[in-house]
Amino acid sequence: MTLPPPRDVARWLWTWRQIILLGILTCGAYGLVLYGFGIIAGPIQQDEGWSSAAVNAAFMGSYLLGAAASLVSGRVLDALGPRPVLWTGLIVGTIFLMAASYSENIWLFIVFWTIGGAVTIAGLFYNVTMPIAARLFPRRQTAAMTVLVTTGGFSSVIFMPLTGLFTDEFGWRWAVRILLVVAAAISLPAVLSVRRLPPIPPPEPSESPGVGPRRDQHGFSGVGDALRSREVQVMLAMVIASSFGLGALLNHFVPASTAAGMSITAAGALTGLRGFLSIPGRALIGPMSSLLGLRPALGVGYGVMLLGTLALLAAGPIFWIYLSAIIAGLVWGQTMPLQGLIASDVFGLRRLGTLMALQTAMGNVALAIGPFAAGVLLGLVDDNYRPVLVAIAGVNALTLALLILMARIHRKPLAQLAASLIAGRRAPQKREYDPG
Predict the structure, then answer these.
(1) What span, in angstroms and rounded, lies between the C-alpha atoms of 92 and 250?
(2) Can you spell out the DSSP letters for 284-314?
(3) Which 3-state string (H, E, C) describes 69-92?
(4) pLDDT tops 80 at residue 227
(5) Which residues are paired to 220 by β-bridges?
(6) How far is residue 12's CA from residue 389's CA, in Å, rounded to a whole number?
(7) What is the SS3 assignment for 264?
(8) Residue 219 bridge partners (DSSP)
(9) Poorest-confidence range of 181-185, 244-248, 290-294, 322-326?
């Protein structure tokens, strides 16, 4: 295998520099708010004597409030561009999360972490960086999304070990402060680099009309128009179902594995492997999309996720648990970017920030509720994980069915367009004079 010449590497890095910087920013944003919190939650309970429910209330509150705040940041992104959104997410999010690290009272901790996490989620997560990437490279969105999410995929690989190391060495409070400084430092280049978005380019001649009421080639004229589109309705339902099942599976993987006979150390190691495998999974987005198309590629991901859940359900031999973790890792990194690409295709560029924020908000609420609902079901069945996994598999199957329905809705207008064009060509020409 021959390496590309340095000049080609330098040209590639220069072409994608803004997308790479946005991916690094995403690493920092997700690093503490999502991945790091799972590491520090236990030490917080031990050091402060706070209950698990109270500590995790801060995490759930940040996601629920972040879902609502994302609707605001999406509209601001479409109206004013990326600078106010990125700067607010970086500065306000850092200040409130830093304040949480100094809070001695549990209620102040919940309030500060909820606000800081919500602002970070609304201003720096994929619901913002994906629309920015799509606007920066409107003709090469698949490549841009692949670079973005592959770079951002290193977040768990980097920040989970760092969070554990700093927490062991300095305690959870100083760990949070150090990680906030690190996250701000690696996010700042993107905030300084991405100042404005280019104008929406004119549609290509081959571009087909969109689906839905009053939608032109650039997208829907507003949220109301989009929500009246059947394709959009089915897509939002699909994202909700996908997030619900994914959240339940990811948060209950370790206890389900230990219930099947695996040690907690091995189950924890598999969780790390799953996060690492999401990186090559994201790198496959471009080839899979080119080979299969966006919707079939996402369908493969949903189908494989269903198989991974069934593998965990079949766990007797430990082999099935390893297989489930490998499948979940490879597919986990693909579903969100592919959903973002399909959203860009369905929504268009005009209101992409607002509509993708709406989609992300719904997905985040489902992601927060999924683990809780699985826990409630687990309590109702006397801590037997088999009914829980059956329910998650059912949600996976529903997600796949909704994708198939959305694809059929998407193809129908194109078929109608082709039929009308063919009929137009075959229609007889009107005669100027008819002697009869």
Answers:
(1) 29
(2) THHHHHHHH-HHHHHHHHHHHHHHHHHHHHT
(3) HHHHHHHHHHHHCHHHHHHHHHHH
(4) yes
(5) 215
(6) 44
(7) helix
(8) 216
(9) 322-326
Spatial distance between the Cα atoms of 42 and 37, rounded to a whole number of angstroms: 9
| Cα separation, 87 vs 84, whole angstroms | 5
Range scoring the smallest mean pLDDT among 31-45, 73-87, 202-216, 236-250 = 202-216
Instruction: Report the alpha-carbon angle 294-300-304, nearest 5.
Output: 150
- Paired tokens of 9: 């590497």
Nearest CA among 362, 267, 341 for reference residue 70: 362
Which residues does 91 contact at the CB level (< 8 Å), separation at least 6? none
Cα-Cα end-to-end distance for the chain:
78
CB 328 within 8 A of CB 321: no
Characterize the bridge pairing of strands 219-220 and 215-216. Answer: antiparallel
Strand partners, 215: 220
DSSP string, 191-256: HHH----PPPPPPPTTPPP-SSTTEETTEESSHHHHHT-HHHHHHHHHHHHHHHHHHHHHHHHHHH
Give residue-wise pLDDT tens across range 173-192. 999 999 999 999 999 999 99
The pLDDT value given to residue 207: 43
What string of DSSP letters covers 365-433? Answer: HHHHHHHHHHHHHHHHTTT-HHHHHHHHHHHHHHHHHHHHHHHHHHHHHHHHHHHHHHHHHHSPPPPS-
List Cα–Cα distances, 123 to 75, 76, 119, 217, 327, in angstroms: 11, 10, 6, 27, 31
Q: How far is residue 373's CA from residue 248's CA, in Å, rounded to a whole number? A: 8
Measured from the Cβ of residue 431, the count of other Cβ atoms closer than 10 Å reads: 7
Query: Is residue 61 within 8 Å of 108, Cβ to Cβ?
Result: no
Give residue-wise pLDDT tens across range 376-423: 887 788 778 788 888 988 998 999 999 999 888 877 655 554 555 455
| Residue whose pair of structure tokens reads 């690989």 in the numeric block | 157
d(CA 156, CA 161): 8
Q: To which residue do tokens 């031990």 refer?
A: 46
Distance of alpha carbon 160 from alpha carbon 163, whole angstroms: 5
Please work out, in degrees rounded to the nearest 5, the angle formed at the alpha carbon of residue 432 by the alpha carbons of 429 and 436.
100
In this predicted model, what pLDDT tens digit does every residue of 209-223 receive, in sequence order?
A: 444 444 544 567 677
Q: Tell me the mean pLDDT in the region 246-275.
A: 69
